[in-house]
Here is the input.
Amino acid sequence: MPKVVETQPILLQLILVFVIFSGFLENGNAGITSAFIRSEWPSIDIPLDIEVFAVPKGHNAPQQEIEPCVFGGRILEEEDDNVDLTIVQKIEERERCSADGRS
Here is the structure.
C-alpha cells in the first residue's frame, strides 16, 4: 500500500501542471497586437520621381558610389576592350569583382 500513497501526489502534480498549461494555451494570442494586415500591393503614396529623390547638385554629392574593380592598375569597365586581357581573364576578373560586391 505504500506505493499507492507515493504515486498519488505525483499524479496530482501532473494533473495540476496539465491544467495550468492548457489554460495558457487557450488564452494565447500568438503575439498578435492589432488587426493591421499589410497589403500585398506596393504603396503608391511616395512616387520615386519627386524632387526629394533627385540627384543632388554640386561636386562630391552625397550618394552611394560603387567601388570600381581594378585589374593590373586599370579600372575595368563593362565594355573595356582597351585592357590587354584574354576573354577568359576578363570574365574571371568580372566574376571576382562581382563576388567582392563591386561592379
Observations:
- The beta strands are 69-71, 74-76.
- The CA atoms of residues 4 and 10 lie 10 Å apart.
